[in-house]
Amino acid sequence: MKxxxxxxxxxxxxxxxxxxxxxxxxxxxxxxNCLEQNYIPSHFFSRRYEFRSSPxxxxxxxxxxxxxxxxxxxxxxxxDTLYSKLMEVCDVEDAQxxxxxxxxxxxxxxxxxxxxxxxxxxxxxxxxxxxxxYYR
Length: 136
Hints:
The protein is an all-alpha fold.
């Protein structure tokens, strides 16, 4: 039964994932700023599971999260900001589920953000896939 609920959540989020124009522009801008600080080629995102443990990928994902405003330099989540960002792309129940599932602080800020962004992908919020569009 639990797997049916998770699948339904994944299908709902994946099919319904849409950033507002303002949020899309914001993500594009912070991605560009982070690339200026720590350039990584587009194939890191198209083949992101191969580069999951790459220090360059972790640095870029940390930069994105910091600039998005929902994580500190030390890897601590700002749950209010994270919640407001999630509410732009999903409903209350899904946002709470994702926060409980993905916003887990680990041993280092880089491990925390890497786990977080990949968890978002696994939950049907393809932010990293979206970054590929910004290379074109």
